[in-house]
Amino acid sequence: MITFKEMQKAAEYIRKNVAADDYNFSINGSEDLLTRFAQNGITQHISGNKLNVNLSVAFDNKNGQASGNNLDLDSLKYLIKTAQSMAKLNQSDPEFVQSEPAHKLPDVNNYAKNTADLPMEKIVDDILKCVKNAKGKGAKLSGISQKHVYDTFLTTKNGFEGFDRSTSFSHSMTMKKEGVETKVSRSVKDHVNFSMQKMIEQLNSQFDSLNNPLQIEKGKIPVILRPAAVLNWLFYLIWTFDRRTADEGHTPFTDQIGKQFFGEKFTFRSRLDDPDLEASKFLNGGIPAENIDWVVNGVLKNMSATRYYAKKNDLKALRPYNIIVDGGDTTEEEMMKMVGRGVIINNFWYIRPTDRKTGEWTGLTRDGVLYFEDGKIQKSVTNFRWNEILHDATKRILAMGPSIQQEYYAKVPTLLIDDFNFVDVTTF
Amino acid sequence: MDFLSLAMDTAKSLGADYADIRIQRSSTEMIYLRNLSLKNTSLNEIYGYGIRVFKDGAWGFAHNSVFTADAMNKTVKKAYAIAKESGRIKYGDGLILAHERGYIDSYKTQFRIDPFDVPLSEKVELMMEVNKTMLNFAEIKLAVFMLECRKDEKLFASTLGSRLDIQTVYIEPTLTATAVAEGDSQSRTYSHGGQAKGWEWVQSLNLTDKAVQVAEEAILKVHADSLGAEERKTLLLDPNHMALTMHESVGHPTELDRVLGWEADFAGISFATPEKLGNYQYGSKIVNFIADNTLVGGIATAGYDDDGVPNQKWYIIKDGILNEYGNTRATAPLIGLKMSRGCNRATNYFDFPINRIPNLYLQPGKEKLSPQELIADTEDGVYIEGRGSFSIDQHRENFQFGGDMFWEIKNGKKVRPLKKILYKSNNPEFWNSVDAICDERYFQTFGVTNCGKGQPGQRGRMTHGGALARFRYIRVGGSK
Ligand SMILES: [Zn+2]
């Protein structure tokens, strides 16, 4: 990978040679190892380093931006020439914001040597264990193991400099045999905290609990959403979680800041000081990350904002850089006893907005659905389509399990939600 | 230095059963204009090479952006070592590659004006004018113009002796106006998706006129009513809308890698399994889907795929029956085929090629029929234009679609605009419900440039097309 020294050297060249009034210069690099398998065999296996070198400049408030994947002098010269000539040909941007000055950045450790040093042979060994397990069950396994080392470097005309090196390891796998199809996935920043044995056990436990599914009627049904499903819908919530589009009247969040918009049990934050989770040191062109509450006990506290919009409205120019949803202490067994009947959902699939203004979304269930009644699992059932106003669904949270680490950037609980709106059923 | 030969010679000397190299420069110009604020004006160029080595039925792939003999040799060796490591967990008894030969050829997207030669100032001026036109309407609170131009320059060589020089270009202008009124926000978009054409195409579009139409319809839409609870109705779907439905419900389920379960962990699998070939009634008798990677203006058209297989044209669905898949050299032999249809494509030099949807379109109706005649022949239905909400299950059976603009049809006439319309259907119900397709005079193509697939995800592109078609007895209603 490119060293920090090489990045600084390139930054020095930019500082000396950019004629524009302002600039942001960033370098994003990665070292990737990607081992993909399907139907019990490796089908794709990739290794290499990637680089993105980006220069955005401004003459007065006219912008131009050029990027490439090389750091040599000729490439830097080309970036300067291209970005500057684009800016000169461009029109003024009424929402132009000057680049960030120097900031003290939080002390965050996103790097783990264990992950960076993980050899390909070890990854293949672990996949082999998973495949053997699947074969033992007469099933087919498909998935991917990924190791990444990421570099983020940013410097500006006004004196900002920030650098962060982070690591992640992730593994996901789907086991399928006839009508039974289920998946587990997990990622960590430090491979030392990853246990393939535990993942195999979780996969087997999900797999063994499922049978060829039977169809039941659609309708409003209580659901136990497992963490992968909860995280999946949170991604989509975050997608529309923008202060400006809310203020401009396009989303359900319009005029809701400070109000009880979500259910009381729902709290969602981003934290710098959670030892298990990765956290950006800086965001949005050089804004130092800080602990931030997005939703507390259902009250909408903050939303994402760009630097321009934050400056104009005296807001923080932050976004959810990691995801922590508070949990409770209810077990799935206790949840099943709290409602007469319902379904347990491992994951969601293909979530899309159906009505941006009301915040209604559609999606399907995936990776196995279990029907329970009288406090006990009764049978596997086929998947459902749902159309649901997701923030309203948080008002129907009846109980929560402990918040557990699902990905290297997220901790979420299992949720028991009443009357989830299932509108269709699938054949499988 | 002849890097292509160097890489292939090194691969052969190592003992590779097959190898190829793709040297690829991808240039993307993006201009994103939001309410007269230029949020992004950028040119991105990435240049490097990816080397695939096939050894004992398993793949290895390594990429690099350093162009020296030493770096290239190291990258070939790395790809070879990875292939050997992959061989520890073989797919079945090892993959087999479909028969192919070497080609020495070149391909270039046809255009008059290279979009990268058009000065930025000219593009920004046009975009500003379009934005201002939209914002002249009091209820239009958000006007967005996104312009993407992309060029890929590829040199491909394989140990079969191929030497290919390929240059493809596409342009994608997208205009969106959003009206805010009565506590609602509704948008309307004008877009043909990406088109493999020159800047002369953009000049011919009269985008300022389109901006007026889009703004007016966004305003009509924000004040429109919705429908009540779901009921069975007739749908008239325009080709832009159908581009998305065919992509999701025909394109993806007929990718052979999905059929074989290669995407089981993320994108999903397919209900359209091999025993259904030649007998499964996918659509009504008038439904013919043609895969055509030779289509002029198509954004999957490139002369050859990234397996070095020539572009082809074939039936995916013929007279309503599932006929064939789109496949690759590694997938085709798994269902007993000798040759690949040439659907293996990678997005950037560092991506491993995957089985992609070809250019795919619904063949126009054989009998003369105009949209006006089709509307006049429809008693009670909903006419849907453009793309909106879309969601489909991972076996590609059950789906729900919205749209960009909706009109109620009563007694052969468009009577009023509607909003917040959703319909639900599934395979094989949907394409079997088609009872009329307008003729070839009304055939139009639309590109899809954001087809997400693979692990890690790649952004694929292909062109779809059709003419206005009628679907009977579909579950349609208002979202609540
Ligand atoms: Zn797609």
Characterize the structure shown.
The complex is a heterodimer of chains A (428) and B (480). Helices cover 24% and strands 40% of the residues of chain A. Chain A has helices spanning 4-17, 73-89, 113-116, 120-136, 196-209, 227-239, 243-247, 307-313, 332-338, 390-393, and strands at residues 22-38, 41-59, 62-68, 140-156, 161-177, 180-188, 219-225, 268-270, 282-283, 287-288, 292-296, 299-300, 323-325, 341-355, 360-373, 376-381, 384-389, 397-400, 404-407, 410-412, 415-425. A six-stranded antiparallel sheet of chain A has the order 3-2-1-4-5-6. Chain A folds into two domains: 4-199, PmbA/TldD fold, CATH 3.30.2290.10; 213-428, no CATH class. The two termini of chain A are 46 Å apart. In chain A, a hairpin with a 2-residue loop joins β1 and β2 (41-59). Chain A is α+β, with helices and mostly antiparallel strands and 428 residues long. Chain B is an alpha+beta fold and 480 residues long. Chain B has two domains: 3-222, PmbA/TldD fold, CATH 3.30.2290; 231-478, no CATH class. Chain B contains nine helices and 24 strands. In chain B, the strands form four sheets. In chain B, strands 8, 15, 16, 17, 18, 19, 20, 21 and 24 form a nine-stranded mixed sheet that branches. In chain B, strands 1, 2, 3, 4, 5, 6 and 7 form a seven-stranded mixed sheet that branches. Chain B has a six-stranded mixed sheet with strand order 11-10-9-14-23-22, with helices on one face. In chain B, α3 (120-135) packs parallel to α5. At the A-B interface, β1, β2, β3, α2 and α4 of A face β2, β3, α2, α3 and β7 of B. β2 of chain A pairs parallel with β3 of chain B, so a sheet runs across the interface. Bound molecules: zinc ion (ZN).
Fold topology:
The complex is a heterodimer of chains A (428) and B (480).
Chain A: H1 4-17, E1 22-38, E2 41-59, E3 62-68, H2 73-89, H3 113-116, H4 120-136, E4 140-156, E5 161-177, E6 180-188, H5 196-209, E7 219-225, H6 227-239, H7 243-247, E8 268-270, E9 282-283, E10 287-288, E11 292-296, E12 299-300, H8 307-313, E13 323-325, H9 332-338, E14 341-355, E15 360-373, E16 376-381, E17 384-389, H10 390-393, E18 397-400, E19 404-407, E20 410-412, E21 415-425
Parallel strand pairs in A: 7-14, 13-20
Antiparallel strand pairs in A: 1-2, 1-4, 2-3, 4-5, 5-6, 7-21, 8-11, 8-13, 9-10, 11-12, 14-15, 15-16, 15-17, 17-21, 18-21, 19-20
Helix pairs in contact in A: 1-2
Chain B: H1 3-14, E1 18-34, E2 37-55, E3 58-64, H2 69-86, E4 104-108, H3 120-135, E5 140-158, E6 163-181, E7 184-191, H4 199-203, H5 207-222, E8 231-237, H6 239-251, H7 256-259, E9 289-292, E10 313-318, E11 321-322, E12 344-345, E13 354-355, E14 360-362, H8 371-376, E15 380-385, E16 390-392, E17 398-401, E18 405-410, E19 413-418, E20 421-426, H9 429-432, E21 434-437, E22 444-453, E23 458-466, E24 469-478
Parallel strand pairs in B: 4-6, 8-15, 14-23
Antiparallel strand pairs in B: 1-2, 1-5, 2-3, 5-6, 6-7, 8-24, 9-10, 9-14, 10-11, 12-13, 15-18, 16-17, 17-20, 18-19, 20-24, 21-24, 22-23
Helix pairs in contact in B: 1-2, 3-5
The structure holds zinc ion (ZN).
Zinc ion is lined by residues 247, 252, 451, 453 of chain B.
